[in-house]
Amino acid sequence: MADFFAFQFMRYALIAGLMVSVMCALISSFVVLKRLSFLGAGISHAAFGGVALGVLLGINPLYSALGFTWVLTMIIGYVSRKGHLSEDTAIGIAYVAAMALGTIFLGFARSYNFDVFGYLFGNILAVTETDLHITAALGAVVLAALGLFHKELVFLAFDEEMAQVVGLPVRFLYYMLLSVMALTVVIAIKVVGIVLVSALLVLPGATSLQLTKNIVPMVALSLVCGLASTLSGLYLSYTLDLASGATIVLTATVLFGVAMVVSPRRRQMS
Amino acid sequence: MGHQTVLEFRDVWVQRGGKYVLRAINLAVPPGSVFGLIGPNGSGKTTLLKVALHLLTPVRGEVLLFGKPWHAHPGWGPAVGYTPQHHLHLPQFPVSVRQVVQMGRYGKAGLGRPLRRADKAVVERCLEMVGISALAKRPIDELSGGQKQRVFIARALAAEPQLLILDEPTAGVDSQARSQFYELLRDLQQRLGLTVILATHDIGMVLEYCNLVGCLNETLTVHETENRDALLRHLQTIYDSSHVVFIHEHGG
C-alpha cells in the first residue's frame, strides 16, 4: 500500500480521481431524477470532437473540449426543448456527428504522438499538475452551482411545469444543469475516458436511489458510492495491473448490482 | 381583489402540431366562482388550462389574469395555484410529502435561498388544511391516489393563490375519496375565498359543486349550472347518449 503513494503520478491520479468522483456523484442524483442519462452519454461522446479540435489547433485539448462540448450541449438542449425533435433523436444525431467530425479533425492533424486511446478510455496516470488546477477550479464552479440551486433543481426534476407556475426560471435552471453536466464530463475524461465517463454520471445516483427514500440521504450515499468506487477501482487497477478508468466503472457497476439485490423495494429503473 | 374577472380569454386560438386545438375561445371567470371544464377526451381541456397558466402561448388572442397579462404581474407572477393531471415523472421520486408541499413556496422564497421560518409556517398550515399533517414525513410514492392529490392541493395552496387550477383532480381516485375530495375543495374555496377552475370528466360532480360549466370541444360554451335544461341539452350534443343518461341519474 505504501508504494502506492510513493510515485507522484499516483498521487496526482488519486487527487484527480477523488475530485472527479465527488463532482460526478453529486450531479448523478440530478441526472437520474431528471432522466438525463442518455444526454450524459451524448455529451461525453461529443467531447471527442472537442478534443480532436484541440489537437488540430495545437492547443490543450481540455480547453477546446470545454468550448466545443458546451456549445453542442446547448444546441441539443435547445432543439429538444423546442420540441422539433425528440430528445433522444437530437442526442443520437449530434453525438455521432461530433465523433465523425473529431475523426476528420484528427486526420487533418496527422499527429501520430497523440494518445487517442487515452482520451477514449482514460489515462489517469497522465494527469498533470495543470490538469489538477483546472479540475479544482471547474469543480468549484460545479459545486457552487449545485449547492446554490439544489432545491430548485430537485423541483425541476420533480415537476417542471409546476416549477414554472410558481415563478422559477426553469429555462435558466435547465441550461445551467446541462452546462454543469458538460463541464463535469470534460473534466472527467482524463480519469475515465470519453467512452466510460457517462457511467460515472449515472451509477452513483442510480445505486443510492435503490437504497434511499429521500433526496438528502440519496445525495449523501451517492457521494459515498462515487468515492468508494474510485478509491477501490484505482487500488485494484494498481495491484492487478488493469486499466484504471475501466476498473473504476466496473467497481461502480458491481456496487449498483449489489444495491439492486439488497434494495428494500426492488425499485425498477425504467 | 377588486378585479372584474379572475381569468379572461379574449378570442384565443391555439395550435399544436400545426392543427388548431382551440378556436375562438372567449371566457370570463368572475371572482369566487367554481368553474367546471368538461369535454370529451382530446377536446383541449388540458391545453386550455395550460394556456391560462402561461405554459402554452396562443397563436392569437389575449389571456388576462386578474385583469392583466401574465408578464405584467410583478415578482413571481400572478397568485395562481396549479395541480397538474397527476402522474409522477419518476414513480419512485425520493421526496417526502412535506418537501413536495415546500416546493409550492420556492417561488416566494427566492432563487437559491432557503425557506424562511414564515414560509415553513405556511407549509405546515397547508398540510393541516388538507388533513395530511400526519403524513408529512412519508415518501410521496407510498401514498394512495387520494392522498397524493391532497398533497398536490397543499402544494398549490402553499403559494397562497387566489385562483386554483386543477387538471383532472380525481382521476385514479376511488369514489369515496372522490366525494371527500370535492367536499374539501368546497370547504377550502369558501374558507379562503378562492376562485376554482377544474377540468374533469365527472359531470355529476360538476353539476353538484360548480356554478359555471364550460363545455369544450375545440370551441367553448359556458353555462350557469342553475340553467340546467340548456346545459343538459348542450351536453347531449357533445357526448354520446349513454353518457347523458348517466348525467340525468346523477344530476336530476
The value of Rg of chain B in angstroms is 18 Å
Span between N and C termini of chain A?
41 Å
- CATH level-4 homologous superfamily of the largest domain in chain B: P-loop containing nucleotide triphosphate hydrolases
User: What is the string of helix and strand elements of chain B?
Assistant: EEEHEEHHHHEHEHEEHH
Give a description of the structure.
The complex is a heterodimer of chains A (270) and B (252). With 270 residues, chain A is an all-alpha fold. Chain A has a domain at 8-193: ABC transporter involved in vitamin B12 uptake, BtuC (Orthogonal Bundle), CATH 1.10.3470. Chain A contains 12 helices and no strands. Chain B has 252 residues and is α/β, with parallel strands linked by helices. Chain B has 2 domains: 1-79 and 164-185 and 195-252, P-loop containing nucleotide triphosphate hydrolases (Rossmann fold); 83-160, no CATH class. In chain B, 37% of the residues lie in helices and 23% in strands. Chain B has helices at 45-52, 97-103, 106-109, 117-129, 145-157, 175-192, 203-209, 228-238, 241-251; strands at residues 7-16, 19-29, 34-38, 60-65, 80-83, 163-167, 195-199, 212-217, 219-224. Chain B has a 6-stranded mixed beta sheet, sandwiched between helices. In chain B, strands 2-1-4 form a 3-stranded antiparallel beta sheet, covered by helices on one side. The longest helix of chain B is centred in the last third of the chain and has 18 residues, at 175-192. Chain B is globular, with a radius of gyration of 18 Å. The mean pLDDT of chain B is 88. Chains A and B meet through helix 7 and helix 8 of A and strand 5, helix 2 and helix 3 of B.
Characteristics of this structure?
heterodimer; A: mainly alpha; B: 252 residues; alpha/beta; Rossmann fold; 6-stranded mixed β-sheet; 3-stranded antiparallel β-sheet; 9 strands; 37% helix
